[in-house]
Write a structure and sequence with these properties.
- The protein is of the alpha+beta class.
- It contains 9 helices and 8 strands.
- It has helices at residues 15-35, 41-48, 52-64, 81-93, 96-111, 153-160, 164-177, 187-200, 245-262, and strands at residues 68-70, 77-79, 114-121, 124-131, 146-148, 203-206, 213-221, 227-236.
- A 6-stranded antiparallel beta sheet has the order 5-4-3-8-7-6, sandwiched between helices. A two-stranded antiparallel ribbon has the order 1-2.
């Protein structure tokens, strides 16, 4: 009797099982990234709640794909070049001109405010983004406009990230530029306000460069933890608006955190 041999068919890949393996691998990768240094297999198993044998297989696969590197002397693992490349790709694509507008527009539409984003250039704030389609009062600042740093909430937030010596140097230059008394307060008053801004994380300015307005600003961080810009919202000082300054502060702080996160900032340690 002829025996017919049958080739064993390859079992289909269980997509659910594959997804679970991927999830576990990403958990290991994330745990090492958050550790900020080298981590051993047993430590990873303890922190992730997975068996040592499972973690060992996962890290071996991640090393093979260059997402992790093994220190041959210590036997521990650190983030590899390929993971770094993935992160760099994200950071290259996460730009402030794409991260900021949707967040600012949400504030404008939700609260009938004017919203802006600006950066420091020499002694001025340069407005890069201005969203003013809504609001009880249009301040009307065109992108590219410049105003003195010390006269706006945004400018003071940007100044607060500098050292005291750098701030005093800029204020000395203001005197040489002969800005009007309305535009500039006394240096001691400005420095006192800078100290408050550093402590509370935001700035409030009333009747600064624009009479009859109140503005609230907060800093925007990039992935290195550096302040690269500031955002602000403004409204008339006397208006039946319904949104108090405290609510403006909350909205601006949340928006600044959202934009910073989009740019790769880790805000927990700032």
């Amino acid at each position: 009797m002829n025996q017919i041999s049958k080739k064993k068919e390859r079992e289909p890949v269980d997509s659910a099982s594959g997804s679970q393996v991927l999830t576990k691998g990403l958990r290991v990768l994330t745990q090492i990234a958050h550790a900020g240094g080298e981590v051993g297999v047993r430590e990873l198993a303890r922190d992730t709640g997975m068996p040592v044998t499972v973690v060992h297989r996962l890290v071996r696969s991640l090393v093979e794909q260059n997402y992790l590197e093994k220190n041959q002397e210590t036997g521990k693992y650190r983030i590899g070049f390929q993971a770094f490349e993935v992160g760099r790709t994200y950071l290259r694509s996460a730009r402030i001109e794409t991260c900021a507008p949707p967040v600012l527009r949400n504030i404008v539409e939700a609260h009938n405010l004017n919203a802006f984003l600006g950066v420091m250039r020499d002694l001025s704030v340069v407005y890069l983004i201005a969203i003013q389609e809504y609001g009880h009062y249009d301040i009307r600042i065109a992108p590219g406009s410049e105003v003195p740093l010390a006269t706006t909430a945004m400018g003071k937030v940007l100044l607060a990230d500098l050292s005291d010596d750098e701030i005093m140097h800029k204020l000395a230059q203001y005197s040489e530029k002969r800005f009007s008394a309305f535009e500039l307060s006394a240096r001691d008053d400005i420095m006192a306000e800078i100290y408050r801004i550093r402590k509370q994380g935001y700035a409030v300015s009333e009747d600064g460069s624009f009479r009859g307005t109140i503005s609230v600003a907060a800093p925007v961080y990039n992935f290195t933890g550096r302040v690269i810009a500031a955002i602000s919202v403004g409204r008339p000082t006397r208006v039946q608006h319904g949104l108090e300054v405290e609510a403006m502060v909350d909205s601006v702080m949340r928006a600044a955190e959202s934009i910073s996160s989009c740019l790769g900032a880790r805000l927990g340690g700032m």
